[in-house]
Amino acid sequence: MAEVLVLVEHVDGAPKKVTLELLTLARSLGEPAAVFVGNGAENAKDKLAEYGATKIYVAGDAELDSYLVAPKAEVLAQVVQQSSPAAVLIPSSPEGKEVAGRLAVKLDSGVITDAVGVADGFVATQSIFGGAFNVQSKVSKGTPIITVRPNSTAPEPAPAQPTEEQVSVTLSDAAKKAKVLDRVTEKKGGRPELTEAAIVVSGGRGLGDGKNFDIIEKLADTLGAAVGASRAATDAGWYPHTNQVGQTGKTVSPQLYMAVGISGAIQHRAGMQTSKTIVAINKDPEAPIFELVDFGIVGDLFNVVPQLTEEIEKRKS
Amino acid sequence: MNIVVCVKQVPDTWAEKKLGSDKTVDRESVDGVMNELDEYAVEEALKIKEAQGGEVTVLSMGPEKAVETIRKALSMGADKAVHVVDPALHGSDALATSYALAQALGTIEHDLVILGVESTDARMSVVPAMLAERLGAAQLTFARKVEVGDGTVKIERLNDAGYEVVEAPTPAIVSVVEKINEPRYPSFKGIMAAKKKPLTTLTIADAGIDAANVGLDGSGTAVDEVTARPPKQAGQIVKDEGDGGTKLAEFLASQKFV
After folding, report:
1. Tens digits of residue pLDDT in A296-314
2. Is residue A100 a contact partner of residue B202, using CB atoms and an 8 Å limit?
3. Which residue of B has its CA nearest to A237?
4. Whole-angstrom distance between the N-terminal and C-terminal Cα of chain A?
């Protein structure tokens, strides 16, 4: 069976959940082989093996972390050339998509981004226009390069004994142009990442003030959820732009999406419509968000949310 | 500093978007607007020009109608424009589009190319990176701040954890996120002036674009099937009678979220 390469997305070596999802998906399509770029491969190996990687390509040269995006594409291009895989799967993060784009140019291959599923023959399913249509498409030229959204596949362990192969890459001059001078981590609680979270709780205009995001955060923390915000809330400066869900923000597709004080304009719906279960709390019974919900409460969020948080706490204890 | 700013006309953000019979975006039946994120790109280009001097050229690839979007960028203050328009380009995917734009950029002198981080119709956000790869230029993407120095550009690249400070020599390809600035509205004077600004129209032959690498046939991807998502079954809506939170908790428990 031909290899299906999976680019490992990791934090100091610890693979992100989406990597494990992609290994699980790759296993249904061929022989899953992980490609690890950067520092910390030692921390990654056990997890990659546990989720079925039969081979791990490691490009650990410290220089690779010094430049933006291009080195990852060069490593992948080299592995593709030496192993002729059936396809390359990459997490659909902003950086993952850029790596995919550059790799596509290098290989003169087609690229599909934001797949929510990949079936036999590397037929990718995408959900477009805010979930209004499902599109099935294929790469028709070169090696299929497909970026896959987090939460598209449930990760399942399938322990393997991977072989390891060191990849040494001599970066091109072009890849060394954009030099990373500093990496700054901005305040971030212990909450899961928005695009990876199984549950997202978002707040909007109905909160009336930035300080009221407290009640959203409390609810999110009882559920182990990530916190999102509508554009109205981020534009008003109530919550960071990085947490914006919508057409000009992030697209999320969690198991559960809770919209609190969000009317559900197209702008917002485009970023959350494909969530598996949707609930909303809004005082306006005509709010378009109610067209999408599985369960909705028409009422004052300042009464409903604290009661909900308390009730969940009670049930948990 | 000569800056090219790439703009794309997209279906109005608030309109219901559809696909045509050839499974490409239907651009005829809806109003077109400038891709919202490109307005920030135009603004950033104008700000850099105002501080440093130089010229801002608008580049757009798209059908005849895209000229409306080009005019808007000119009325905001760009100096001139290049419109690549050719029926052969219809249906180009990211691989083909990045090729066509790279070829067109070859005809325009530039130190910087600025784009919005993604278009609101295709939403791939890969074209800026692909242009950098094709042109061998530095990739400075997802910028929330751009500082232009002497022959160098430094950005703050937004990411999930915070940001990265990235520096590169020019020429560079920059993509910007919406928090970078507040785009200006075209003034009446700007709108009048835009009518007299030079607008060059290029066919694919003029831009040195090989027809074999663009359009539906020249693309690297093909759409097999499109299905409208079945309408969602109406959910249960409950009016809060003082126990809304409890009822919602019961629902979440019934779905095993609690």
Report:
1. 999 999 999 999 999 999 9
2. no
3. B179
4. 49
pLDDT in tens, B173-210: 999 998 899 999 999 999 999 999 999 999 999 999 99
Interface check for B158 against chain A (CB to CB < 8 A): the answer is yes
A41 in Cβ contact with A166 (< 8 Å): no
Upstream peptide bond of B128 is cis (omega within 30 degrees of 0): no
Q: CB B130 to CB A101 under 8 A?
A: yes
CA distance A307 to B191: 54
Best A12, A72, A112, A141 residue to mutate vs chain B (most B CBs within 10 Å): A141
- As a whole number of angstroms, the distance between CA A274 and CA A231 comes to 18
Q: How far apart are CA B251 and CA B224, in angstroms?
A: 39
Residues 60-79 of B with CB under 8 A from A: none
| Residue A270 clears pLDDT 90, i.e. is over it | no
Cβ-contact B160, A9 below 8 angstroms: no
Pairing mode, if any, of strands A123-128 and A111-119? Answer: antiparallel
Q: Which domains does chain B have, with CATH numbers?
A: 2-218 (3.40.50.620)
Decide if A292 contacts A234 (C-beta within 8 A): no
Question: Which residue from A127, A178, A241 is facing B138, i.e. has the nearest CB?
Answer: A178
Best mutation target among B124, B142, B152 (most A Cβ atoms within 10 Å) is B124
Which residue in B120, B235, B245 is closest to A306 by CB distance?
A: B245
Strands A87-91, A55-59: pairing is: unpaired
Would you call A276 an interface residue with chain B, using a CB distance cutoff of 8 Å? no
Q: Which domains does chain A possess? A: 3-176 (3.40.50.620), 199-316 (3.40.50.1220)
Which residues, in sequence order, are bridge partners of residue A164?
A56
Reported confidence tier of residue A188, pLDDT bands at 50, 70, 90: low
Q: Which one of A129, A185, A283, A301 makes the best mutation probe of the B interface by having the most chain B beta carbons within 10 Å?
A: A129
Residue reference for tokens 């001097």: B53
Give the integer Cα–Cα distance in Å for A256 and A124: 24
